Amino acid sequence: MTFPVNPAEPASAAAHQAELWKPVLLRAAAALVFGAVTIFWAAPSVAGMGFAGGLYLLATGAALFRGIPLNGLRRDGYPGRAMSAAASILIGAGVTLMVLQGNLLFAVIAALGIGLLAAVELYLGWRFRGRHVLARDWLASGVIGVGTAVALPFFVPLGPHALLGVAGGGAIISGVLWILAGLSLRHDARTGPAKAVN
After folding, report:
1. Which of 7, 15, 61, 166 could join 90 in a cystine, given CB atoms 3.0 to 4.6 angstroms apart?
2. Alpha helices per DSSP H over 128-159
3. Does 14 score more than 70 pLDDT?
4. Is the dihedral of CA 59, 57, 66, 170 positive or negative?
């Protein structure tokens, strides 16, 4: 799913990509935990739905921030700038869901947060295809996010269980994607130095 680190990249970029598996696995863990909660929670309340969804968006935003390198806010278009904006929006959406309650509010705010992140991932995946280790994963995650965001508003009349089911279904699919990407990155980070020694 991921590209190997390009040996022509600067040392700082290669070092960042070698450590990128940590925030990717954190994001995967947040998605899979949220997905598991939505599967096993038989009768969530509106308040519980807002709290669970808000925590998921907060955790995802925090993981995205952790993956942004210190030089990621440069003006040369590096993904850190767009991803920091998406992470900020996601954290804001998470806080909103935890404070305000309602089926329609959950559907709209969660759809906006997930949809905007998906749009950023699609943009980054397309713009950095073949040049960034996560480009393919961003494209796949963006498609999953768009599908989740589009579907959420249609389930408002069915209540919290259905809304959490839709959000959780998207989270599980993206969580599996990101755990595979994170494990690939970790494997590449561990075998890279060994190849350099040989």
Report:
1. 61
2. 135-151
3. no
4. positive
187's tokens: 């494997």
Residue 67, pLDDT above cutoff 90: no
Both structure tokens of 62: 């925090």
DSSP for residue 194: H
Q: How far apart are CA 102 and CA 184, in angstroms?
A: 39
- Rounded to whole angstroms, the Cα distance separating 104 from 109 reads 8
Which tokens hold the place of 191?
A: 């075998």
Length of the chain: 198
159 Rama sector, left if φ>0, alpha if ψ -120 to 50, beta otherwise:
left
Beta carbons within 8 Å of 129's beta carbon, 6+ residues apart: 135, 136, 139
**How many contiguous H segments (helices) and E segments (strands) does the chain have?**
7, 0
Distance CA 127, CA 129 (A): 6
The rounded radius of gyration (Å) of the Cα atoms in the chain is: 17
Residue corresponding to tokens 């494209």: 139
Cα–Cα nearest to 69, from 78, 59, 57, 58:
78
CA distances from 23 to 41, 115, 148, 165 (A): 27, 20, 22, 25
Q: Which DSSP symbol is given to 101?
A: -
Question: Is 1 a residue whose pLDDT tops 80?
Answer: no
**3-class secondary-structure state, position 40:** helix
Average pLDDT of the chain, as a whole number:
85
